[in-house]
Amino acid sequence: MENKRKYVIPGDVVTSGPFRPEQNVVLEGNKIISTTIGISEIYDDSVRVIPLTGKYIPKINDLVIGKVISHTSLSWELDINSCYVGFLPAQDVFGRDFSAHADELTSKLASGDLVAARIANFDRTRDPLVTISDRDLGKIDSGDLVKISPSKVPRLIGKRGTMIQTIEMATNAAITIGQNGWVVVSCESPEGLLKAKKAIQMVDEKAHVANLTDQVKEMLESKGES
Amino acid sequence: MGGREATMVLLDENGIRCDGRKVDEPRRIMIRAGGLKNADGSAYIEFGDNKILVGVFGPRDVHPKHMSDTDTGILRVRYHMEPFSVGERKNPAPSRREIEISKVIKEALEPAVMLEKFPRTAVDVFIEVLQADGGTRCAALTAASVALADAGIPMRDMVAAIAAGKVADTVILDVNNEEDQAGQADMPIGYMPSLEKVTLMQLDGVLTPEEYKKCVEVGIEGCKLVYDLQKKALNDKYFGNGDN
Lengths: 226, 244
What we know:
The complex is a heterodimer of chains A (about 230) and B (about 240). Chain A contains 5 helices and 16 strands.
């Protein structure tokens, strides 16, 4: 597998032959062409490119961090770092017995607040519908927001969460990663907070480097001693 | 033409052009991806004495709203020349020529970008010509492709562009300002090398059918040279030096 990975840019022929084109590739004749800058991966029967750049495209069930930008009498609008705004209906927060004239939306969420939300529904015709009625979702009261490229979120999580575990263990920080590239870090000790933020930014900058987990580990440990 | 010396030699007896190039030799080309922090994608190109900066934003909300399309994203291109980009101050207001070039570049990029993945959005491409020396539309198109790729817009292929032309009854590659003013024909070509498709083709001047064929051939070969430099610019930014 490892030797089949390749750096590609739009127009590059990833491979040719009977493969199923998956993410970020198109089939032209019998050639499979990459449509984005990224790393190509060839599996037994399919081909995909992991992008290194680009905006966040909402997917149902994604956890995202959103920022309240405005509200109407019935809903909030969230900036979810995408080309679409997240739509959070008031019923979701106040419950079924919400009434537009009795309940004041700003009492729960005001402009500028950060929320952890889940994409409940999204298709081509509508803006993404988000929900915060679930465990671990809702308003975020404390922590620092770090913005990274959405395409590098999988790298920050790592294989089966190894990367993020490494950072959390070394710094004692609690990290919430939104699939949209917004990450909230909270930590009791200021040093741990700074270190965790630095580690996250390091992953963002060096996402394409091999065995990055070791490098991050090294950075975290070396800083701890000094 | 254009008040230039009528005696200027565009092509001497050794087949050397007015700026010392051979007939099939492009000017010096340098492309750099990225550079603008606030844009989603950007590129800078030096194409001979042309200097062009391109910024790409999007996909993002469409304003005014009525321009949006529920089936697909839309591409908007603005080609603009700085007042100081040419010898005599250019009025910064969009001229007839700039509006035309904006449209032509937009239509040359549309076959490459896959905006149907982002309905109700717009991708904005801003092209600023800092210094012009003939062939800006080709250089701008080349840089715009790199900037779009840098922004992560899905593309079937990048568009590379260069002009072919005719001076002193000879087909040449990469027409410069002097050759454009005093030459016999100028043919900008935009080409997607991986897909082998032409996306831009214009012709100003008179060519025989044979010369026309030769021009297209020479132009496409030139586009392939430009394409390699586009790829190099992106590889340099994203993967460091040459570890591909």
